[in-house]
Amino acid sequence: MKRQRVVVKIGSSSLTDPKGGLCHDKLFDHVEAIAYLKQLGHDVILITSGAVAAGFGPLGYPARPTTIAGKQAAAAVGQSLLMQAYSSAFAQFGFTAAQLLLTRSDFYSRERFRNLFATITTLLENGAVPIINENDSVSIEELTFGDNDMLSALVAGFLHADALILLTDINGLYDANPKTNPQAKKYAFLPEITDEMIEAAGGIGSAVGTGGMRSKLLAARKALSFGVSVFIGTGSGREKLADILAGKGDGTYIGVPFPKQMQMRKQWIAYHAPVAGMITVDSGAEEALLMRGKSLLPAGVTAVSGDFHAMDVVDVVNEKGITIGRGQVYYAAADLKKVKGRPSEEARQYSYLHRPEVIHRDNWVTLRKESVSK
Ligand SMILES: Nc1ncnc2c1ncn2[C@@H]1O[C@H](COP(=O)(O)OP(=O)(O)O)[C@@H](O)[C@H]1O
Ligand SMILES: N[C@@H](CCC(=O)OP(=O)(O)O)C(=O)O
Asked: Has this prediction a pTM greater than 0.80?
């Protein structure tokens, strides 16, 4: 299997005891499975919950605190316990754990966004395991991600992950909460998430979790909109994540089956994404895109119209004004205007992902081939 970029999110209930407090056996089981995925050559980014659940006991609370200050204080205690446990467990497999604590405003600022991307990329290049949680102790309630399910979907989208795996205490999505309705039936595969499913999904099932299945479905829908397929479920043992990636997991698969994920992203670009602008390319770039399977580079761009942002979808037209394809851009319109016609190495500083391509091959869909300019 080709190298995959996988975002794994682990919920509080899968890391702590029902009454709170870190469960080292549960945590080790996940670490072993992540280490195995890395040994198979995949990139893994971990989104971990559990700071509040791990910290409230040691801080002296009998149950998960309900006040914001209580949760924030518990998270400050629990986060360091979590990282201590991850660092020592990953070290047993020869991997280094790296902590990143995010707030929603990190996603609003392009500069922070860019730094975050560069940091995670550098960590992955060096073989480390990026471990992300919300920076609970400083997050302001109105500005939180909602929960780590949504955070994991946003991270999976912006890292162009191949798959988002939401590990939880239940083996998938049911048509009703199985903890309260024993007749509930499990979905094995869903092509999409409908409003009805979100309505039907219930809330939290454990004393330590946050959003329940509803928040997972909202997150799954967000991930699908970025072209990332999702798995919600459970598992145990070293091979559980590899099995999930191979389509053999105990849970619900949402979107296109993982190996065919690229196809889905392209479908989204071709048929669903709003088109935010237009780029004109010269005949060399047109030929590279249509005949040689290459990415679009800044050097081949001759004109830019519309007010698009980086990662928006734009139409690409040739010198005759004929639309030849559509793709997701790494540059905002204003930046692309500055760098059109320039060498990639000069231009890439303006791309928020530091990527030289204007449209990477993976984010390109050909709409007309017969129109190549002569
Ligand atoms: N339709 C549903 N299908 C499956 N689980 C559901 C459903 N509705 C509610 N749940 C509950 O969601 C829980 C998982 O959510 P949560 O406790 O937030 O987990 P985590 O801590 O892993 O994020 C399950 O234990 C289950 O009780
Ligand atoms: N950031 C919080 C987790 C919030 C959260 O979404 O929890 P969960 O529903 O268990 O994934 C913490 O570390 O306690």
From this structure: no
